[in-house]
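User: Structure tokens for both sequences below?

Assistant:
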Amino acid sequence: MAVQYFMHDGLQFAYELHLPKGAAQALETVVLVMGTGSPGRVWNFHQVPALISAGYRVVTLTNRGIAPSAEDASDFTIEDMAADVVALIKHLDFGPVALIGTSLGARIVTEVALAHPELVTYVVAMAAHARLDPVQRAMVHGEIAMAKQAEPAPIAYRAAVDALQYLSPATRANERTAQDWLDMLSLNDAGISAGHAAQLQVSADLKDRRSAYQQITVPFLALAFADDIAIAPNLTREVADAIPNAVFADVPNAGHYGYLEQPAAVNDLMISFLKSYSNTPINEGT
């Protein structure tokens, strides 16, 4: 699917639109929002095909700071990033949409649901969190500091740290799979870009939002990854406890990249939740 663009806040944003084969125009729309440092196309590996097969129109957004969207390195905020998603929804003009996000993307879609419930049908927030604990906050500040260094850390070392931080022990236990992940994580030989660092600063500035999230009214699935040490499951459960009638679920043998490590389990939970509120019948054989 070709990348498309829209303008907002003086910046160019990239998104992709995916439709089921032979689909009519009257489809429910799902917008997917990625986490820190990653482009929207990461969703294309597993979640986009599953949602298309389930009969949804699917849109993936690349957040500001990350190419091919504007590599904005200014002092933007979580409110700015939520406004970017609102601008996309209005640009698409498809009516209210379902929102799915992970990590930083989970926070973004949660803030959109709070501020603009009229634009949101339901939310799936993977690795949702309303705050960071002290260790996570220290890690974020450390990553921001590393981004400012003239000489980045060795590629192989960064890949190993990322594997420890973001993958489940169950994934790392398979040495071939672990090596495949190390090879993929080593592809980012440029280190932390200025736009990536600006996204990290958004996390560093996060306040405790649990009381604010008590005002969210849209159906909400807070989806944790059981082995996630970047956003521990207890923080995701806090979000579910704060939001009235929210649903909590966790995925075993999954780290922070659980949507890539355990895609079948993640997709089943995600689509089952959407279908419980959706008017879109499940498509067979698409």
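Moving on to the next sequence.
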Amino acid sequence: MARKQIQKADSLPLVAIDLGSDSVRAMAARRLSADFFQILGVEERPQKLGNICVEQGVVTQSSNAGYVIAEVLKLLANRIGVDELPTAFLAIGGYSMQIVAVHSRRDQARRKEVSQTLLDEMERECKEKIEVRNPEVAVLGLVPSYFKLDGVEQDDTPTPEQRAALVEAYYIAFCGRKALDTQLQKAFSQAGRSIEQSFVRPEALLSAFATCDGNQVLTEGCAVLDFGAQTTTLTVYKGGQYLLNKVVPKGGYHITRMLEQQGLSFNTAEVLKKQFGCAAPQFVEKNVRLRVPAVPEIGGDIVITSQELAGAIEIKLQEILAPLLDELKKVESRIKTIYITGGASMLQGLDAYLQEQTPVHVCYGAHNYLLHRDTEEKYLSPLYTSLVGTILLGQDYRDSHKDQLVRKPGFFDRVKESTLDMFIESE
């Protein structure tokens, strides 16, 4: 029975999961050619008020999150016609995430091949360096910055065909509270699934944009403004290094809550924002009067014009973006492009609003070049860029870990986890 739970990773579809604050999404895909994929299916389950399991990118209720993960992957398996999806790649974000530079070196005494095993060991050493010094911190992702072989900087990750006596690896570590990593692992264990590999969300997004626009954007320098439901993140990257990763605990959800406080239900406020909202009054194409129902406690209707709605949204938008724009000003002379993405980024006029705030070119990030031409149009939305970027990184991971076996947690693993939780809670 245990044997049936073990499969070769490359025999499984590529599956990515995005644990968003508004919903949990999963995507299955297969590679058609180098950096070119076909989406096999997508499933998502919105989080319900009163039963929230992910907040600001952090799993807060592992049992609830485990249930949703299992449900979404089961539905996705049914959609694409396979018995089971035991493993998935995961993109990680979160309010507490910070970046730290770290490196490792190996003196092999004589010129030997630079094996994947050696590089994996050096990556683990970098992870352990940070976690040993800071027991309350977990390394959520390690992104290669650059490598040196016998003192010579390399253009790419070394391969086993290359030989060197001295191997040096430089990484950028994305770190967060250890509880974030622990809750993620518990959630997948309780779902009866395993994380094949996790990546930090900024890396997934940048990988997608670099593949579409060419690696020149990374060399010249670029920023990603990831506008989510409960968090908004600014990541700045240039020439192999992350210069900045700043997260504010506010997003599109907070704009909706602001409108809700005017006497609307949350659902009505959300529809009003998505269908008629604009980033600022100057970007409203036609000023119309809108009549929407108030909550039962107030009764009747609320009348608001498009200009008034945009004015209210602009005030909240300024509050959300101000700390990020302050940070951007410090590095804007070093970058050429700002990409906008994320589920809340489709607010009308957002790109024009940001362009007024900075001399750097602003545009929406795209991932369509990674997908087959018959892909449904809705999957080309910024809402799915993180999933597509995670699929891309997942394929790269499998290419460098061929024939690796993946195993979903079995019954005894889950019993052990539950028993530990019982003892911890009783202390």
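User: Anything stand out in the second?

Assistant: Residues 19 and 25 are 7 Å apart (CA to CA).
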